[in-house]
Amino acid sequence: MRSYRRRLLLVPALLCALAALAAGPAASGDGKGTGRNGTGTGGDSVLSAQVVQLYADAALATQRYEAGRREADVQRAKAQRMEALLERERREIGVLREDLGRIARAQYRTSGGMPLTAQIILAKSPDQLMRGQRVFSQTNLVVGNAIEKSRRAEARLSRDEAKAAASWQSLEKRNAELAELKKGIEQKLEEARWQLQGQADASVAAGACRGAVRLDQPKTDGTTEWVTPVESYELSAAFGSGGLRWANLHTGQDFAVPIGTPVRAVGDGRVVRVSCGGAFGMEVVLRHADGYYTQYAHLAAVAVDQGERVEAGQWIGQTGTSGNSTGPHLHFEVRITPEMGSALDPVPWLTARGVRLG
What we know:
The chain is α+β, with helices and mostly antiparallel strands. 51% of the residues lie in helices and 14% in strands.
């Protein structure tokens, strides 16, 4: 009787153990499995988020730096115009000085500088004396005006030169500060990128993904049905191209982008595979409503779990250089099935859906 009761108690315990094993995460090391369906560790999420934030900071710093450069170009043009004006002022001052010299010489030749007492003694008539006085007063007035005009011009020239120099120095200092800020952010970003890649390499070596890292990302507008897999890029290896890296022809389109670049779902769909291992390294495969599949490979992080529904433009991971990769890029494939060997050229496929690669 006691033995029968013990067997009854063992049954629920065994069922619980089996349920726990069934619910546990499954690792895959062949590049074809599902990987772990869970949430990334705190360190993974923090690092991925840090890379995304540094990308935003770097973009803002670059915008500010470029705006400063454009402002410097405008200021340079102003400085050139100012220099032309200053040169004209210098020429005017030179003319004024010549006028002063000419007036002084004329005054000397006409005895304009003769003392008033001598003019009175030598005047032959009152009319001559009055004419002499008028000439003397007019000459003094002309000389005084010329001197004052010269002084004002020289003072204006001095102010304009000081103003131009101060404005240019201020702009140069500001641009130097912006350049230093931009450089510092880019250095931090580069360090964070390779830390993120190090985590990806560890996952690929273990053959198991660490789980999705959830990133704060811009909301999709819901109006665009299809987008490019990355926002900014340079096209590299094309579909069907040959090379030493592949045993056969290239099966996708490569997008050359730095590590940590957000990867977007090209259209609405469902995640059918998240794996970390094999030639593709860390990868995500989506199934779309029209029956086609898209693959995103050589990632440094994934931001979705298997079975999850995604929208066009939603971030599903971050680019890297995991697996059989010679440098940071996104390997993008379009397939008829979720498996290798069913790929077709992604460029006309995207073009047919209104997405042109350039």
